[in-house]
Design goal:
Layout lengths: L4 E3 L6 E5 L4 E5 L5 E3 L3 H23 L4 H18 L6 H4 L11 H20 L7 H12 L37 H13 L7 H15 L6 H15 L11 H6 L1 H14 L2 H37 L6 H13 L2 E2 L1 H8 L3 H13 L4 E2 L9 E2 L1 H5 L3
Parallel strand pairs: 1-4
Antiparallel strand pairs: 2-3, 5-7, 6-7
Length: 381
C-alpha cells in the first residue's frame, strides 16, 4: 500500500481560506510519514534523549520521589498559567484561598484547577490512551468554576475563535473553522498512535503541540492544555516513568520566541525552527530538573542530619518534613494533625525547626502564623 512521505524541508503548514468576512488558517493534516534530513536536528534530538534518560533515572533511584512531584506540578501550573496572563507566584499558590489577597484569588483558582487537571490526566492515563477524550476530560477540569466556565468546558468549540485583537477583524491569527476541528483532532490522535510511520517521539509531540495550538480546538484554555499534553505524551510513551519534565518554565522565560516560532511555522512553513526551539527547551529543562533533584537530595540529607539532634522527637519532625516536601508551607494546626501532638508540643517542635533554619515564619503575626520551608521552595523559584 502506498504511504505518503513528506520531507521536513518541504513541510507545508496550511493555507488561509476566505470565509467571507475573515480568512481562517486551515492546516495540513500531520498523520503521514515525515523524512528527517537535518543533521542539526538529529544532533539536538540525541542530546535531548540523553538528558531525558538522565532525568528519568531519578525516578528509579530516589525512593520517595512522589513526595517531590507535587511541587513540580505546582511550579508547572504557576508558570503555564502565567503565560496566559495570571499574576500569581508559587508562594501564593501554596496558600489556602482565604490567605490569598482578594485580587489574586481568581488567578489562584485557575492555577489550582490546572493542578487538579494535570493530576487527573496522569491518573486517567492508566485507563485512557493519549486521545481527544483524555484531552476533553482534562479541559473540563481546567475550566471548572473559573473565568472560562461558560466557554464549553470539555467540549470542542462550535463557533469561530481567534488569537489576539479585540475582534476577529484585527486578530493576529484565526484558527480553522469549527466544523473542521473534529477532523483535525482525529488526525492528531491517529498520528500520536500511528505505527505505520516512524517518527522520533520528541519530534512527534513537538509537531502535535504545534498542530494543537494551530487548531485551537477549545474556546479557552488551549495554551494550558497544549502544554500539559507534552508531559502526558512522554509518560504514555514510557519516555518518562513519572511526571517530572515540564516545559512551561522554558516557554514562559522565552514567551516571545515561543509564540514567534509557532507563527513562523504557519507563515513560512518553517517547522525545523520550531523543532529546534522545542528540543533546546527539552534539553535545558531536563538539565534544570536534574539540578533541582540534586539540590533536593542534598537538602534532604542536611535536614535529616539536623533533626537527628532532636532524639526521640525526630520521628515527629520527619512527619512534618515529609509534608513540607509536598507543600512547603505549614501552620501549627496542620502540624498538630500530622503529628497528633498537643498544640504546646507542636509549637515547641516548630520552634526547634526554626532554630535549625528549616522553617521560617512569614506572616509576622501573633496568631495564624505560617511557616515556610524556604530552602526547599528556593529550588523551585
Amino acid at each position: 500500500m502506498f504511504k505518503k512521505r513528506e520531507k521536513m524541508r518541504n513541510f507545508k503548514a496550511g493555507n488561509y481560506i476566505n470565509q467571507g468576512t475573515f480568512k481562517s488558517f486551515q492546516p495540513e493534516i500531520i498523520n503521514k510519514q515525515w523524512i528527517l534530513e537535518s543533521m542539526e536536528l538529529v544532533n539536538l534530538l540525541g542530546q535531548a534523549d540523553r538528558q531525558l534518560g538522565r532525568l528519568d533515572m531519578y525516578s528509579e533511584y530516589i525512593p520517595n520521589i512522589d513526595l517531590f512531584i507535587s511541587m513540580h506540578i505546582t511550579k508547572e501550573a504557576t508558570k503555564s498559567s502565567k503565560i496566559e496572563g495570571t499574576k500569581i507566584n508559587i508562594e501564593d499558590v501554596l496558600l489556602d484561598k482565604e490567605d490569598v489577597n482578594e485580587e489574586k484569588r481568581n488567578d489562584w483558582e485557575e492555577v489550582q484547577n490546572y493542578i487538579s487537571a494535570l493530576n487527573l490526566a496522569i491518573e486517567n492515563l492508566k485507563n485512557l490512551p493519549f486521545s481527544s477524550r483524555l484531552i476533553r476530560e482534562t479541559h473540563k477540569t481546567l475550566l471548572k468554576g473559573v473565568r472560562g466556565k461558560h466557554k464549553l468546558p470539555g467540549e470542542f468549540r462550535s463557533s469561530q475563535n481567534w488569537i489576539g485583537g479585540a475582534s476577529i477583524k484585527d486578530a493576529i491569527f484565526i484558527p480553522p473553522t469549527f466544523d473542521s476541528v473534529n477532523e483535525y483532532m482525529s488526525d492528531l490522535e491517529k498520528f500520536a498512535h500511528s505505527e505505520d510511520f516512524y517518527f522520533p517521539d520528541l519530534l512527534k509531540i513537538a509537531l502535535i503541540h504545534y498542530q494543537f495550538e494551530t487548531v485551537h480546538p477549545f474556546l479557552d484554555g488551549n495554551g494550558r492544555v497544549g502544554r500539559l499534553m507534552i508531559t502526558l505524551y512522554l509518560i504514555e510513551k514510557g519516555i518518562l516513568k513519572k511526571p517530572i519534565l515540564y516545559l512551561s518554565d522554558f516557554f514562559e522565560r522565552n514567551k516571545t520566541l515561543y509564540y514567534d516560532n509557532l507563527m513562523r511555522v504557519r507563515e513560512k512553513d518553517d517547522i525545523i525552527q520550531w523543532f529546534k526551539f522545542f528540543l533546546v527547551g527539552v534539553i535545558e529543562t531536563a538539565k534544570n530538573s536534574i539540578k533541582t533533584f540534586d539540590g533536593i537530595l542534598k537538602l534532604q540529607k542536611d535536614v535529616e542530619l539536623k533533626i537527628q539532634e532532636l532524639g526521640s522527637r525526630s520521628s515527629n519532625a520527619i512527619l512534618i518534613i515529609n509534608y513540607l516536601f509536598q507543600r512547603p508551607i505549614i501552620d501549627a494546626q496542620i502540624a498538630h494533625k500530622i503529628t497528633k501532638l498537643s498544640l504546646p508540643s507542636v509549637y515547641k517542635l516548630i520552634k526547634e525547626l526554626e532554630n535549625f533554619k528549616i522553617l521560617k515564619e512569614i506572616t509576622g503575626g501573633k496568631r495564624g502564623k505560617l511557616f515556610v520551608f524556604n530552602d526547599y521552595l528556593k529550588l523551585f523559584r
